[in-house]
Design brief:
This protein is an alpha/beta fold. The chain has a single domain (5-201), classed as Vaccinia Virus protein VP39 (Rossmann fold, 3-Layer(aba) Sandwich), CATH 3.40.50. It is 36% helix and 25% strand. The chain contains 7 helices and 7 strands, in the order H-H-E-H-E-H-E-E-H-E-H-H-E-E. It has helices at 5-14, 17-36, 53-59, 74-83, 118-129, 152-156, 166-175, and strands spanning 42-47, 64-71, 89-91, 103-109, 130-140, 179-186, 195-201. The chain has a 7-stranded mixed sheet, sandwiched between helices. Helix 1 (5-14) crosses helix 4. It is globular. Bound molecules: S-adenosylmethionine. Residues 5-6, 9, 21-22, 25, 48-50, 71-73, 76, 93-95, 109-111, 114-115 line the site of S-adenosylmethionine (SAM).
């Protein structure tokens, strides 16, 4: 029987699969940061931060004033807090959480297709989570053009994975209010279409 994304990632944290996942995402995430981080001092939030490895990586970078993470998995957040007592990690569902402050950068790697209505979170991030001129950067491997990913809901036993095309994601960013929306495919090779990376800016 399939389970919810958060149930599955709780189990992944328990058996240590979060670390392999971080290794697998590292190359794309480094490029996403390169595409989105400003040269001026900035605050940063990782939406769906897993064990928090990107929060810690970004906090060590020049210009980072504040780096925080949120994830729905109790066990991912427990790990993040055990590794790192200085940055804040919130345990909540992204669709109902409201941050107590706004950020310059909202980053999210391999999370948005686990949401029933990703367009609603994008709009909320644009309207309420970001500072003026702030950026949203999203990376996903599960999308229509990356056909090798299409069997992941079966393979991973996850009951909520929404499959959209690159154009549909671009449209969602634009309809949420983002400007200068840019889509890039990172590390594409052979039959792997690459990590689809979208960056959008708030006016
Ligand atoms: C594939 S993992 C990626 C984790 C991290 N971004 C990384 O690159 O290592 C997806 C993460 O999204 C979280 N997640 C999925 N749906 C969520 C939701 N509705 N609210 C909060 N977190 C969610 C899961 O708990 C999991 O940690």
């Amino acid at each position: 029987m399939k389970q919810s994304p958060i149930e599955v990632f709780n189990q992944w944290a328990e058996i240590g699969k979060d670390e392999g996942m971080a290794d697998g995402h590292r190359s794309a995430v480094l490029q996403m940061l390169e595409l989105s981080l400003p040269e001026t001092p900035f605050s940063f939030l990782d939406a769906g931060c897993g064990n928090g490895w990107v929060v810690r990586l970004v906090k060590s970078m020049e210009g980072c004033l504040l780096s925080e993470g949120i994830d729905g998995s109790v066990k991912m957040i427990k790990k993040a807090r055990e590794i790192d007592r200085s940055n804040r990690y919130f345990r909540d569902d992204l669709t109902s959480w409201s941050p107590s402050q706004t950020y310059d950068i909202i980053h999210s790697m391999e999370v948005f297709y686990y949401l029933e209505k990703p367009e609603e979170l994008l709009a909320k991030i644009h309207d309420k989570w970001l500072n003026p001129k702030g950026r949203m950067v999203m990376g996903i491997d599960f999308y229509k053009e990356n056909t090798v990913s299409h069997d992941w809901p079966e393979k991973c036993g996850i009951n909520l994975m929404r499959l959209f095309s690159e154009q549909e994601w671009i449209q969602m960013f634009k309809e949420a209010g983002f400007e200068e929306v840019n889509a890039t495919r990172l590390d594409a090779k052979d039959n792997w279409a690459g990590t689809l990376c979208l960056v959008g800016q708030k006016s």
